[in-house]
Specification:
7-stranded mixed beta sheet; 7 strands; disordered C terminus; about 200 residues; 6 helices; alpha/beta
């Protein structure tokens, strides 16, 4: 991770702003007709999957859920998002710019970030894109496995208009075995665009 991409403390680390974002998220979710489900994992460090991912609205809903749960998470996004005048606020909302055109070891850098932190949650959309994909990218798994942290299942379901956090899985190091219960969990949810499967 370069100096440019070092993790910035999020706004939810601020104990004064935290309740303000909570009530903002609560009101917005109510107005939009969405409900938050699940509970916050007890772990201090973990990867939070964000799936299924098929629309720009996913970011908005997930952000509101994060505010609702008061989770100071970081998330990985295309570096092209982090332009003036949005760069500062996106980083303070937990954004980590990732330049996919560069041959940088993102997995190792993120694993090192976990090892050097007492508390860290990184949200990753395994589909890697809003476009139609038939197979998840495995970067989130390798980051969690190298960092020795569990994977929590953040979900969004447009059919039922619910979003939240599901089960937490410890990894064994065998990706084929570990992914089976994770994929089974996500098979019940629908993205905004049903024709864009993520599994």
């Amino acid at each position: 991770m370069t100096d440019e991409n070092k993790l910035t403390p999020t706004l939810l680390n601020n104990f004064i702003l935290r309740p303000i974002f909570y009530w903002l998220a609560t009101c917005c979710l109510f107005i939009l007709g969405w409900k938050a489900k699940g509970k916050i994992p007890e772990h201090k460090k973990f990867i939070l999957i964000a799936a299924p991912h098929s629309s720009n609205w996913d970011f908005v809903i997930f952000l509101l859920i994060i505010f609702k749960f008061k989770l100071p998470v970081h998330w990985m996004g295309k570096h092209t998002m982090f332009i003036w005048p949005f760069k500062w606020i996106l980083k303070r909302l937990g954004g980590i710019p990732i330049d996919r055109s560069e041959k940088s070891n993102v997995v190792q850098n993120m694993a090192n970030a976990f090892k050097g932190s007492k508390n860290l949650i990184i949200t990753i959309a395994p589909s890697g894109t809003r476009e139609k994909v038939m197979k998840w990218k495995t970067g989130f798994y390798h980051i969690a496995n190298q960092a020795k942290v569990p994977v929590a299942c953040g979900f969004i379901d447009y059919k039922q208009k619910i979003s939240g956090i599901g089960p937490v899985f410890d990894l064994s190091g065998c990706i084929e075995t570990d992914m089976k219960p994770i994929k089974l969990f996500y098979s019940q949810f629908s993205g905004k665009h049903l024709e864009k499967p993520t599994l």
